[in-house]
Each structure stands twice: as structure tokens, then as C-alpha cells.
């Protein structure tokens, strides 16, 4: 009986880890598509918003990209919030004259606070959110605004393409993970709503912008407001943003802990509204968010069950398996490329996410951020 329970725990743990990447996508593909119904009319006006902290290295390329977008869209309003940078970020943003309207924060107050300041001042019908180190393709704004011809659409996400995936095992794993994430969003969009946006490139109708505390993940909070308002949150494959991957494990670990902690605070803040969502959207949210946040716990539970099974079969088998696992882990965490290095980075990512969630459950969060040095 004990062996059967251990086998069931192991199988359920494996299924939970695989659910967001295997079973959930298969279910989405079996669902019918929800078509868009655009109406004729003039394109909405737009405001592009981003926050920056110590991004002087990224600013020249970012400002050139913004100048290109402004040339294509003279009416595009561009706002930036400087979160108390200690380098030349603010001066560089102000350098091109009237290209970007800069708001200087009083110090380190965080991205959520900064974005609220910008959204309160923006005048565009559509608010476009992006990051200081993200570059948009030339036709990104055109393609994004075109989707708002359907009055049911309240928010549009873009597609993030990473640059530098060959620079390290961490970057390679990050790129693979993100490609899987993008395909999941494509399927969610096809079947109704995408369940949340990241900060690289997304937009909403300004009238839907919500109020929220500074402690939450503003990308998730703002994008979910579209669904709560009864509108559609969709993804546009032809709205392309580009960002350089984080190459160092330490940078990526800290980033994932920070994001996971704020994501759990956001989940707690949004829980009453999440419960009122349609059944399909609740299923999507649980599959792509909650199950993934606890992936590290499922891996740990499965590992303990597997170890207990090995011990019950033979203490010698248990010892051999434990020794092999320790040796492989040592090799994997020292490797800088190949399959074992990739496996190590996957486990690190799960551990960082679980640590962030556990931190948030204890009432701790992270409101400020620092750019990754290995980008």
C-alpha cells in the first residue's frame, strides 16, 4: 500500500510539472477559435510608456528606436519615468528634446509607481507599455493599433523575440522557455483571452487602466483588468519586440525571485476578481500561473517519493541513485553548455520561482528593480 501511494505521488508530481508545457497546450489546441470582428473607423491615438533605472547603456539604441517610431507616427506620445537613476539615464532621455517627456521620480519607488504616474498623464486612447531595454520593430505600432478595430478587444500583447540566446546555457534555456511561453499565449489568444502580459510589449485601452498598490506586478495587474472588464486580451504575432537575454545565472535567479514574489502578491490582490472570471479563463489562469509557480515544490515532492521508493526496493539502489544524482548535479552546475547545464538552469529557475512565492507568502515583496549586468 505504501509503495502504491509513493508511485501515485511520483506520477502526480511528474504530471503537475509537465502540465503547463504538455497537457495544457494540447487541451488549448482542441478548443475552438474565437474570431475577431473589426469595425471600420479611424485608428485610435496612442501613448507609449516606459520606466527606467540605470539604463544609460541601453538608452542610445532605445532612443534611436523611439525616434524611428515617432517618425512613422508623428502623433505618438512618448513618456518615460526615471526611478532615481544614479547614472546618465535621465540626461540621455532628455537629450533629444521633445522626443520623450520625462518624469523624474523622487528616488527608488518602483516600476508600478512609475507606470501609474505616466498613465495618469498620458492622453492616447491606447496605452502601450514597454521596457527601457526593449526595441520595437518598425511596424509594431501600426499592427498593434489595427487590432483595436474590434470593439471587444480591450488589450493587445506583442511577441517578444530574444537576442543573444547562444551566449550561455542560461540564455539558451531562457530562450527555449520563452518560445514555449509565446506559443502558449498564441493558443490562449486564439481561444479567447491571454491570461496576463509581461512588460516587454503590451497595451490596453486607457479607459480600462486600473488602480493598484505599488507592491504588485503592474504588467499582470493592468493586463488582467481587461479581462475583468469583460473585454478580450489578445496577442498579435506581428507586433514584435526584441530584448537581450540575461546570460548569468545569478542575474537570472534574482530576476525570477523578484518576479515570482510580486506575481504572488498580485495574485492575492486580484483574488476576488479572479474568482468571478469565466470558467475557461480560471482554468487557463490556474494552468499557466498557479501550477507553474509551484513547479519547484512538485519536483521536490516527486524527488522525495522516488527516493523513498528506491529505499524500499533496496538501500543499495537508494545509495547508488543518490550518489549518481550528486555527481550529475555537481557536473551540471559547473557546466557552461550542453544538456546538463541546461538541466541545471531549469532546476535553478524552478527553485527561484518557488523561493519568490514563499517569500511573498511570508509577506515580503520587492518593489524596486536593478538592470541585469549580464544582459
From TrEMBL:
Keyword Transferase recorded: yes
A GO MF label: kinase activity
Domain Glycosyltransferase 2-like: 47-209
Signal peptide: none
Pfam short name (any one): Glycos_transf_2
Domain of life: Bacteria
Protein name: Histidine kinase
Organism (species): Sphingobium baderi
Amino acid at each position: 500500500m505504501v509503495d502504491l501511494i509513493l508511485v501515485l505521488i511520483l506520477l502526480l508530481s511528474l504530471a503537475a510539472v509537465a502540465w503547463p508545457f504538455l497537457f495544457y497546450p494540447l487541451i488549448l489546441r482542441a478548443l475552438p477559435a474565437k474570431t475577431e470582428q473589426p469595425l471600420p473607423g479611424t485608428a485610435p491615438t496612442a501613448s507609449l510608456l516606459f520606466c527606467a533605472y540605470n539604463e544609460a547603456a541601453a538608452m542610445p539604441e532605445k532612443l534611436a528606436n523611439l525616434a524611428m517610431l515617432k517618425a512613422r507616427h508623428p502623433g505618438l506620445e512618448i513618456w518615460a519615468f526615471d526611478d532615481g537613476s544614479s547614472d546618465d539615464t535621465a540626461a540621455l532621455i532628455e537629450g533629444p528634446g521633445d522626443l520623450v517627456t520625462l518624469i523624474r521620480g523622487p528616488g527608488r519607488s518602483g516600476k508600478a509607481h512609475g507606470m501609474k504616474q505616466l498613465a495618469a498623464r498620458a492622453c492616447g486612447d491606447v496605452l502601450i507599455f514597454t521596457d527601457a531595454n526593449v526595441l520595437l520593430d518598425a511596424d509594431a505600432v501600426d499592427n498593434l493599433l489595427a487590432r483595436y478595430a474590434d470593439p471587444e478587444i480591450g488589450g493587445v500583447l506583442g511577441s517578444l523575440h530574444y537576442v543573444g540566446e547562444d551566449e550561455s546555457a542560461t540564455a539558451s534555456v531562457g530562450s527555449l522557455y520563452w518560445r514555449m511561453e509565446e506559443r502558449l499565449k498564441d493558443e490562449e489568444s486564439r481561444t479567447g483571452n491571454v491570461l496576463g502580459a509581461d512588460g516587454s510589449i503590451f497595451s490596453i485601452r486607457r479607459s480600462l487602466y486600473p488602480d493598484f498598490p505599488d507592491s504588485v506586478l503592474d504588467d499582470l495587474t493592468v493586463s488582467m483588468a481587461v479581462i475583468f472588464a469583460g473585454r478580450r486580451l489578445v496577442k498579435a504575432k506581428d507586433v514584435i519586440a526584441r530584448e537581450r537575454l540575461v546570460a548569468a545565472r545569478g542575474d537570472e535567479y534574482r530576476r525570477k525571485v523578484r518576479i515570482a514574489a510580486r506575481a504572488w502578491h498580485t495574485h492575492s490582490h486580484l483574488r476576488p476578481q479572479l474568482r468571478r472570471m469565466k470558467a475557461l479563463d480560471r482554468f487557463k489562469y490556474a494552468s499557466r500561473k498557479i501550477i507553474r509557480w509551484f513547479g519547484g515544490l512538485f519536483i521536490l515532492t516527486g524527488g522525495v517519493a522516488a527516493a523513498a521508493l528506491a529505499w524500499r526496493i533496496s538501500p543499495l539502489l537508494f545509495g547508488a541513485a543518490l550518489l549518481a544524482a550528486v555527481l550529475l548535479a555537481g557536473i551540471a552546475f559547473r557546466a557552461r553548455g550542453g544538456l546538463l547545464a541546461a538541466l541545471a538552469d531549469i532546476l535553478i529557475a524552478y527553485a527561484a520561482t518557488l523561493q519568490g512565492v514563499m517569500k511573498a507568502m511570508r509577506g515580503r515583496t520587492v518593489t524596486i528593480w536593478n538592470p541585469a549586468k549580464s544582459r
